């Protein structure tokens, strides 16, 4: 009885939060306009030859206080094949007042969804997504307010054809690093290959930022990476397979399976699903974040597999063990300083995951600082942590671009 009441209260609170967010979004950003050019997201076939990060095409976009340009650029998937990825390059109207050239921060978006309509480059321009897009806009604005240019990626398969490879380490790292290259090569922006760069992200974006930080030395060594902000990163998928299952945010577990199935088709993940599981796969791949949360909250994955085992039960057997290991973040040393941040009572991604990521990097000799993201409620602490994260990221990167030394705290967290 007590558990039923508690679940009902949480649903009511969540519904209230969502409703308030929807109203705020409509009031703040107005009605969504029609897609300015639906054909922009269709890549040429065959893809043009070129270097990773080369711009394929552009489309003028809109964002308050900045010159905004949508870009399609070359990147690479987890199998190292050339792919098209879209995103947005934003240059603030305000002049850069810091030292040297205006820096570029790669903004790695948090979970927007799996459907192409959810692509952050669309929602930043007011053309799609749900009220979660207001948080994306707020994070971008916090970076622009510091005078940074922002290079935002949509990741693989979000907007462009194909499946979004949600939380796939190499694919997301490549997309983040290549959008920085695209921004440096985009004409008419005042940016160049000499522009220093940083990375910032939260949740899915925290994982993408972390992945980019540790793959940058090998994948994009020419980038002058000054630092990476890593907020609430889903660094260990094995832990999340257990912690998300049956909870309010189990939809994100479904997203992970769809993303991994797209990146590793040889694993035949969908073959493990029963009819209900296959139906969830088909539905979830078309949803944005809130739709997935509402549709699938409190579902148990054991109800969706042919043999009645939960998803976590498969992870000790191949090929799933190898896939989970390949997507574990923290196995390589970032060359640049990193700030790892996590709310201690995060209700989506346990803070122990973020802390372990920091410790893993410390053990490799990286310059790491771990700190708690302020949180005032255990309910929705992950979502509400975004507000604190965006300010922390902007301030910390300001110090890195100013040349101030980054004080790590390895061994003290």
TrEMBL record:
Q: Which PROSITE patterns match?
A: TAT (PS51318)
Q: Which GO terms describe its biological process?
A: lipid catabolic process
Q: Does the keyword Plastid apply?
A: no
A GO term for molecular function: triacylglycerol lipase activity
Query: Signal peptide span per the entry?
Result: 1-36
* Keyword Signal in annotation: yes
Q: Which Pfam families match?
A: LIP
Q: Which UniProt keywords apply?
A: Signal
Q: Which PANTHER family match?
A: LIPASE 5, PTHR34853
Q: Would you tell me the protein name for this molecule?
A: Lipase
Origin organism is: Amycolatopsis regifaucium
């Amino acid at each position: 009885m007590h558990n039923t009441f508690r679940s009902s209260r949480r649903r009511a609170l969540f519904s209230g939060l969502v409703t308030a967010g929807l109203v705020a979004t409509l009031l703040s950003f107005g009605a969504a306009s029609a897609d300015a050019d639906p054909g922009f997201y269709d890549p040429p076939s065959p893809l043009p030859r070129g270097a990773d990060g080369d711009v394929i095409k552009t489309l003028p976009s809109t964002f308050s206080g900045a010159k905004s340009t949508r870009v399609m650029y070359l990147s690479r998937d987890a199998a190292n094949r050339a792919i098209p990825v879209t995103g947005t390059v934003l240059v603030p109207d305000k002049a850069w007042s810091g030292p040297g050239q205006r820096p570029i921060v790669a903004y790695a978006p948090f979970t927007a969804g799996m459907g192409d309509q959810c692509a952050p480059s669309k929602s930043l321009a007011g053309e799609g997504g749900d009220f979660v897009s207001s948080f994306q806009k707020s994070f971008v604005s916090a970076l622009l307010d510091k005078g940074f240019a922002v290079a935002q990626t949509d990741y693989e398969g979000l907007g462009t054809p194909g499946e979004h490879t949600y939380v796939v380490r190499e694919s997301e790292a490549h997309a983040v690093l290549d959008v920085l290259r695209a921004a440096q090569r985009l004409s008419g922006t005042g940016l160049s290959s000499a522009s220093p760069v940083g990375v910032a992200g939260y949740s899915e974006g925290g994982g993408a930022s972390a992945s980019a930080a540790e793959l940058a030395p090998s994948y994009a060594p020419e980038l002058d990476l000054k630092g990476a902000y890593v907020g609430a990163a889903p660094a260990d998928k094995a832990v999340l397979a257990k912690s998300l299952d049956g909870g309010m945010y189990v939809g994100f577990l479904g997203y992970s399976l769809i993303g991994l199935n797209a990146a590793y088709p040889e694993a035949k993940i969908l073959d493990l699903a029963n009819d209900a599981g296959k139906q969830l796969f088909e539905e979830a791949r078309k949803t944005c974040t809130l739709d997935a949360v509402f549709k699938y909250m409190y579902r148990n994955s054991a109800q969706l597999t042919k043999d009645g085992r939960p998803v976590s039960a498969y992870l000790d057997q191949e090929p799933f063990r190898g896939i989970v290991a390949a997507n574990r973040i923290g196995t390589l040393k970032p060359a640049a300083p990193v700030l790892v941040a996590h709310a201690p009572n995060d209700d989506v991604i346990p803070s122990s995951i973020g802390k372990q990521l920091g410790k893993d990097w410390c053990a490799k000799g990286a310059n790491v600082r771990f700190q708690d993201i302020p949180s005032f409620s255990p309910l929705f602490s992950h979502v509400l942590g975004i507000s604190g994260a965006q300010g922390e990221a902007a301030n910390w990167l300001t110090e890195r671009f100013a040349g101030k030394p980054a004080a790590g705290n390895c061994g003290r967290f």
